[in-house]
Amino acid sequence: MKKLIKIIVILLLVVCDMNAQQEKGITGFKSWLNNWTEFKPNKVVYNDVSQILTGYIKVDTKLYKRNVYLLQGNVYLMNNAVLTIEPGTVIMADSESKASLIVTKGATIVADGLETDPIVFTSNKVVRKAGDWGGVIILGDAPINKFGNLAAINFDTDANLSYYGGNNSASNSGVLRFVRIEYAGAKIKGFNNFNGLLLAGVGNKTIFENIMVSYSAGDSFEILGGEVNLNKLISFKSSNDDYKFNYGTQCTIENSLAIRSSYLTSTNGSRCMNVRSYDKQEEVDFTKKQTLVSARNLTLVNNSENVKVDIESGLIKEGVYVAENASIDFKKSVISGFNPAILLSKEIAINDLNLKKVKLEQMYFNLCKGNIFVENNSNNEDLENWYGNVGFANVYSKAENSETFIDFMNDKRPDFRLRIGRITVSNED
User: Fold this and answer.
1) What is the mean pLDDT of the chain?
2) Which domain holds residue 206?
3) What is the mean pLDDT of residues 194-209?
């Protein structure tokens, strides 16, 4: 009888812990990173190129898994054309021409991969590195907060085909699902770095799920205006920001992951999240919506093996930056290994109005040198007292990452779900 009771207790503990470990950070009773992701992309060998994509795509076009495509120069999908990419298709981007794929306003991309057959955009170099090529750009006609509701991307692209913004929040630019984008973010003299995936003025009917951007020399994901829903995104070892939001974007991001390296950063500093409403205040129409990011079940982690040493040596900075007149609503998310976890712009006055714009509830702050500060102000007592209120249910910890996550050190199939207690969900299939 005692043995039966013991077994029942163990089973109850396992079930309770399974539920508990799902509360904060990325969720799922088995790791959704399995099968379609690649944490060693430079080790993957692809078939030889058999087709070339270049110039302007003006008619409906389909790419097939049986071919390997070379993206050469800036390739524009335009004229309301639809580009359909079959699951398992590989697109190699030409590094010499700093290739990019630009989906212009009105055009549609349907890159709908499968968990067992993802679509891959990667460099055509034998030895690949960050910044080998441009990236993937999607331009839509959803609202932005700039005067005139229209803007152009600042890259080495055709000026006539670089505009985004409009009045259609529900516009549909297609689908990106089970897609990997690797080694993008080329720097072109006189222009900004390209990003892994840039969404500018994109509407909420567009689907973005299970997308992994790895080793981008620019931002992994940059969202300029528009209204987007993002789910199960991964940024892996970006040199710049993992997720950057600007120009009045209204964004919901859920169950997503950013993995930073202490040794990869830009000269301006790099963060897991950079939340802004503008770069220049004079270009913004304040009658329009300013940037609002609703973040649920995110895991933002520095993958250093010795976070404390890297913080003291100055290699690690803040995990999240929030600029003036921007808002973020963070819930049930994990921020681990930063200095500090969240940094507010020095332009943000600490008052009731602004504190309502930066919501932190049921958060898990771990191994951070401070949780939330204002720029150039080492006294954060008021902020710590406010967000430490029991009503917000925020949790603070100093555990090593290897103890915090289920399988942090696995360089092939890591599992960044939060570990609570000694009994955790198995990371086996």
Assistant:
1) 91
2) 42-296
3) 98
Predicted pLDDT of residue 166: 97
Give the pLDDT confidence score for residue 336 in this predicted structure: 95
Confidence of residue 12 (pLDDT cuts 50, 70, 90): very low
How many CA within 13 A on the CB side of residue 343?
Answer: 23
Q: Provide Rg for the chain, Cα atoms.
A: 22
Instruction: Mention every residue, 6+ apart, whose C-beta is less than 8 A from residue 20.
Output: 420, 421
Dist CA 212 CA 290 (whole Å): 27
pLDDT of 408 > 80? The answer is: yes
Q: How far is CA 47 from CA 114, 229, 372, 417, in A?
A: 20, 34, 48, 34
Taking the alpha carbons at both ends of the chain, their separation in whole angstroms is: 33
Nearest to 119 by CA among 200, 193, 36, 189: 36
What's the length of the chain?
429
Structure tokens at 204: 């909420």
Q: How many CB atoms lie within 10 A of CB 97?
A: 16
**260 token code pair:** 């930073």
Closest among 295, 293, 144 to 226, alpha carbons compared: 144
Distance CA 204, CA 192 (A): 26
Helices (H) and strands (E) in the chain, counts: 5, 32
- Pairing status of strand 163-164 against strand 174-182: unpaired
Q: Is residue 178 part of a domain?
A: yes
- The rounded distance, in Å, linking the Cα atoms of 107 and 121 is 19
Q: Could you give the number of structural domains in the chain?
A: 1
pLDDT per residue as tens digits for the range 260-280: 987 776 666 679 999 999 999
Q: Is 46 exposed, middle or buried (0-12, 13-18, 19+ CB in 10 A)?
A: exposed
